[in-house]
Amino acid sequence: MSAPAPPVGRPVSTTDWARARELAQLAGTRHRIAATEQRTLAAALGAVLAGPLTALTDLPAFDTSAMDGWAVAGPGPWRLAGRVLAGRTPPPLADGWATEIATGAQLPPGATAVLRREHGERTGPQLRPGPAADPTPGQDVRPRGQECRRGEELLPAGTEVTPAVLGLAAACGYDLLTVRRAPSVELLVLGDELRTEGLPAPGLVRDALGPMLQPWLAARGAELPAPRAVRDDFALLRDAIRHSPAEVVVTTGATAAGPVDFLHAALAEAGARLLVDGVRVRPGHPMLLAELPPAGARGAARHLVGLPGNPLAAVAGAVTLALPLLAALTGRTGSAEPGGRCVRTAEPLPGHPADTRLLPVRLTPEGPRPLAFDGPAMLRGLALADALAVLPPGGAAAGDLVELLAVPR
Hints:
Elements: E1 15-16, H1 17-30, E2 36-40, H2 41-44, E3 53-54, E4 64-65, E5 69-72, E6 78-84, E7 97-101, E8 113-116, E9 120-123, E10 126-129, E11 141-142, E12 153-155, H3 163-171, E13 176-180, E14 185-190, E15 194-195, E16 205-206, H4 209-219, E17 228-230, H5 234-243, E18 248-252, H6 263-269, E19 273-277, E20 279-282, E21 288-292, E22 302-307, H7 311-329, E23 341-344, E24 356-364, E25 367-370, H8 380-384, E26 387-391, E27 401-405
Parallel strand pairs: 1-20, 6-7, 14-17, 14-18, 15-16, 18-22, 20-24
Antiparallel strand pairs: 2-13, 3-12, 4-11, 5-7, 5-8, 6-10, 9-10, 19-21, 21-22, 23-27, 24-25, 24-26, 26-27
Helix pairs in contact: 1-7, 5-6
């Protein structure tokens, strides 16, 4: 079968940038992954909690000392006896007695407070508080259950498992976490002109998108094989889309109306339904989102995100469509997708006359500042950027509130 010629000047019904992100999120929410799995703490990083994280124990699990010093019972002066170190179970402490104690050690039964080392005056077997340093009951003690009680909900379902979440789970006694199964994603890198190693050559360029997008999508909880290169051939592209077992297919390039931009035709033959076809954003306006017929053993609903081939434009497409879709598929909350944080500008930020613009910026104490090398085919500015500033048509004036989106890390 011969390749259909892409229609020259194909009319595109473009979508507002905010609406496009909303549609991507809705598509993922409709097909949210219900399957769960248990992972060790080491393997759970980046996944999403399938249910609330509840405390398996009180935190702290016992009264502990918040300082190095002495555990004391009653008012001073005190007679000294022994030492309590972390990891030991101390004997009871009688009224009028004190024992040396380390930070984090269990408070002896009967102790009423902790006297800091710098506040105590030791004379032989006797300990006195320094001037105005007599501890009040409970002073420098972390009481049992101060942070949480057993059975208390600590984090809601949908929370991303970050290093801090792992630390909290470990402190509560978890060895395994129940998380949502990661969505399967396949990255198809399109183009005859792409090289995967060595220097660019006449007519050939290095593939920058595979090395950048692959780890970025994986960090958002996706399960990916190695990127797959697809030549500029209609049948190859159609079959790659039709037979991909992934729940989300991400393509780079072929989204416009050039002589080898076969993506729209391939989607039509694969039985896809377009949800977003072009977005009013610069760079990256010829991006798309489509719903694909189910395929593979799982038989789950599938989606395709078509990113432009220019590197910065592809990043714009990823934050606009791919990341909100992935976040919704796993019920992810509290992440940079679909919304970011807002800050006030330090200076005017240039926008596009009619479309939303995503501009690489550095964050300073005064506010975001624009970076050079911000063209659709450039990555130099992005490599230096702390975020992408979301600018309305016409740009932003100094002091305006603008949204910031995370960049690949």
